[in-house]
Every structure is written in structure tokens, then in C-alpha cells.
Amino acid sequence: MKSKRTMAAGLAALGLVLAACSSGATTAPSSAAASAAASGAAGAAACQGKTIAVIVKAGTSTYWKTVGSGVDDAKAEFPGCTVTFEGPDAETNVTAQIAEVEAAVAKKVAAIVIAVTGADQVLPSLQKAADAGIPIILIDTNKDFTPKKAFVGTDNAAGGKAAGDYIVKTVGVKAGDTVLIIRGQAGDAVHNLREQGATDPLKAAGVTVIVQPADSDRAKGQAVMENVLQANPNLKAVFATNDEMALGALKAAQQANKTIPIIGFDANPDAIASIEAGGLTGSIAQFPKKIGQFGVETAVKILAGESVDANVNTGVELVTKDNVANFK
Amino acid sequence: MSSQPEPVAVAPGPEERRNWTEIAFQLGALLGLILLVAIFALSSPSFLTTGNLAGIARQTSVNALLALGMLVVILTGGIDLSVGAVLALAMVVLAMVITKAGLDQSIGMVAALAVGAALGVGNGLLLTRLHLPHPFISTLGMMNIARGAALVITGGASISALGGGIVKFIGNDEILLGSGDGAVSIPIMLFVVVLAYVAFYFFLNRTVVGRHIYATGGNPEAARLSGVPVDRILVLVYTISGLMAGLAAVVLAGRTDSGYPNAGLGFELDAISACIIGGTSFFGGVGTVSGTLIGALIMGVLRNGLNIMSVDTNWQTVVIGSVIIAAVYVDVLRRRAGQSR
Q: Do the Cβ atoms of B266 and A3 come within 8 Å?
């Protein structure tokens, strides 16, 4: 139990890492934002005098502060609304988040926009909120939760696909070539999506795909790369479902005196520095700020009685040497 | 090992009392390792190559060092759940000393060893002075504290590019033996591991303190009555375990050329597995240095072979669990055969 918590804390920290880079990002899909703006007038009227509670996994961490800056942007769009922003002191503090959900229900807020922390412990109290007629919008982390009105967050499959497409089109792997995908913990939903997203275009191009797990850990990514290179010295490209494993794989490739294109995921500061220095070939960036902004905009649309997409994609972008300057 | 003090009037260690049971016991885990190597060698031509064997050595080193520390702790009937987190804290301290403070890698290395030893002393004192009920609790607490501290001081970010020096030499560099096609690269860290195992062998089997460690785990009350300073021994073994975590941190930092706060997640379980696979008893008093090495090698060979054969991700977890159980069961069978003799 405790060791799981530590692991969660570790993963949380990994999340932190995502934040720094995305704040500098300028490009992101704008369709959702545009449509929200179109309904702005109606939206402002719909939530006049009402409160939207935004609850994240940890109120003070860098990543969630970036999400919060997106919430602030949305706040400015709808001056009539009261938008609160809070979260527990740590992502592992599940009971604190449950208390925040219960408090929001007691205050009779108009909508709850939440990044559910922990496994599924918060869902029963969210169910109570939904039973009380409060619309629930999940952000950042999707859950199998029937009453949810929408999920707003990174489309991890799209991120994986961007990496797979790049390997096929730009790296130029051909049918019969071998590509390695190093993924996070077996069974982890986020890594499943990233892996599947990358595998599809690779398989479609006739590429042999090897998938091996490295638990999102740099040293394990390095070991996996060393081992796979032993059996497959002609590896043409590598996609790792997070940057830590990508950086480990890079170290292994360098030690074996091989130049193999390696793409990571998260565009964390280490990966950005490596891309700039000519190490990693690329990394998939996410946009936490958009998650906060689109989350609140979606809530406002629901309050205005408009229909919303069940999945609002906040976009991903492949960072390479060409555009790395935008991400520093 | 010329600096090793002459053994004086010390009872022979268990690895010197070579009766049939002991040999069979040793052979149990070794048999498992040989079987595993044979299966992988027959399955893939890439397995038994010098390049891959060097790879296995590199990938096993960190666990092999942690397992040595874990061994002395388990010998006293204890457990150290904090080693993975202590490794992480020592590793990020090392990385920060080098990159943020701009000091030489040797200072970073000393800092990592000091952090490891200090937290180990902490574990020992929590147990003997605060009288926490079981080391499971004290080291579990330390695990969370060390992991948290590693996250706090780095802000959750990894630190890369440590440059050159002793840390890179130990964790990354290799010596080329021979020349031409027959040349073999031996990772420097392999020498560190071999040295550590030889030192621990002599320490546990040929020194008074080593014998006291076995005695403490075998029967603490009897040990206390016969004059073994049990509390001091306990503080010592947790300090050794912490120190080994610090040393493992140096190796891993050199190998990955970085320090990152999520390093070592779950390493404590790998270290415990290596000890138990190698025949160490959870109840204390029983366990050997050579068995621990075999246990660590089984874990390392297994992970390497599964990668080389590109075994499906979800199945790998099942296979690892099955092999651990099988390896220990071979041991149980061997021991039973030895006892009925």
C-alpha cells in the first residue's frame, strides 16, 4: 500500500516535469477554444452568479499551477462566473480531494471540473455530486465514470500516433524494418494509448514493432535498449512512452556507438535540452494550460445547455530540433 | 585483500562448514541460474555473446550491491525497505553537488556515500533507540522520507549531464581486454561489484562482527546473553545497507549520466528477491554472500533474456513471478533431499 503511494508520488513528480515546457508553447488546436468563444455571450449569461469548482490533484505543484493559469484565462472570458480553483497538498492525498468534492456539493456549486487523483476512491463522492444534479467534467485523467459530461485532456493515442507517423514519414522506416517501443508499466491506461497510437501507423507501414516495458524509469529504459540492441542491431527507430525512458535509451545507443532516432513523450526540460543538443530526435508535448482553460469552457457550455464533445482533445505537438526554441 | 585483518579465534562461517546440506543448498539456486542461462542461450543466438554478458553485468550491478546490504540486514532478522529511496536521494544529491554546486565528481561520490550511510544510521537508531516495533515500519517511514526529500530538493525534475570524473569512470567506463575481434570490454562497475562481494564474504565469515551478525539473527536473546552488542550490530547493519545504497547510487548515476528523484522505485523488492532466491532466510541467521550473488544474477539474466526474446510486456510480469517461485522451489527440493540423507 505504502509503496504504491510512493510510486504515485513518483509519478506525480513526473507530472511536474511536464509543466515547465508547455507553458512556453504557443501552438495548440484552437477549435474548442474558438467554439467556446462563439458561445461566450450565452455562456456568460448561463453561469451568471453561479460557481464552477475546479479541483485538481495538487494545488501547489508546477504542473497543476500551469493548469490553473488556463483556468484563470477562462475566468477572464466569463466575468460573471465565480470559478474556484483548489486541490490537495499532494497528489497522494486522496481523502483531502474527497473532502473538497463534498464541500463543493454542500456549497451547491453549478458544476465540478475535476482531475481525479488516486485510483477510483474519489468516484463515490463524485457520484453523490452527480446525483445532486451537478454536472461533472473530468480533466487531465479520464475515468470510467458514467455520469461524466465530458473528458478534457491530452489525447494520448494522438500523441503516440504523431510519433509513429514521424517515424514512418520523416525517419523513413520501410516495410521489414524493426522499430522498438519502450513503454511504461504494463496495464497502465495512458501508456496503453500511447503505445497503440504509435503501433498503428508503424504496423500499417509493414514495420516490425517490438514492445518492451521499462516502467517509465530511465535506468530500465537504458537496460531494455541495451538488450534489444543485442538481438536487433539494425533497429531503425525508437519511441518511448515517456522522456525518462527515451533518455535512457539514448544513453544505451550512444554507448553502443549507434545513431538511432529516438522519440520521447512529455517534452520535459531534460528532453528539450537533449533535443537541442542533438541527442533525442523528438518528444511529444502536451498542453496543461489548455486542460484548465478548456475544462472551464466546457463546463460553461454545459450550463448554457449546449452540447459538448464527450472527449475534448487539448492537443499534442511533436517537438523536434526545428521547433524546440518555442518550448524552452 | 591484503589489508584484511588476520582472523583470530573466530568460529568458522557457514560457507566454510561444507556439509552436504550446505552444498546442495548452494547448488539449488545455482541450478536455477544454469537452467535459465541454458534456456535463453538455446532460444536466442544473441544471448551468449560477450557484448550481452557485459550488458547483464551492467544491468545486474546495482541490484547486486543493494542485495549485499540487504543480506546483512536480513541476516539479523530485519528488512530494509528504504534502499531504493535512499539510492534516489543519494543519487540526486550527487548530481546536484556536481551540477549545481559545480564540485568535482569525487565530492559528489563522497556526498552520495555519506547520505546513504547517514540514512542507514537513522534506520538503525529508529529501531534501537525509538524502539519502533519492527524494521518494516522504521524503514518504510525512511523510504517515504527519502523519496520525498529527493522530490523536494529537485522539484521533481531529473538532472542530466554530469560530465567526467570518478562517477563516470565507475558507472560508465570499460576496460578493453585483448585486441581485434577477440577483444572484450569489461565494465569498471563489475570490478566494484566483485570487490564488494569478496569484502563482504570475508567480513561475514572471518570477522567477529560478521559472526555477531549471524548470531543476532539466529537468536537475538541468546546473542545478547552471550555478550553480543545486539543494538550496535543492528545500527551497523542498517548503516551498511544505507552505504551500499549510496554506492549503488554512484554506479547508477555514472551509468545513466544523471540523477533523478524517481530512481530506484521498487529496487528494494529486487534486492530482497535476490537474497531470498539465493537462500537467505527471512527469519534471520541463515544466508550467504555467494547465494545472494546467484539470486541477483537470476533476476538480471531473466530481465535481459525476456528483452532479447521480445517477450510480450504483459507476459513478462507473469514469467518473472513464476521464475522467482520456481527458483526458490528448486532450493526447497534440494534442501529436503539434503536433509533426508
A: yes
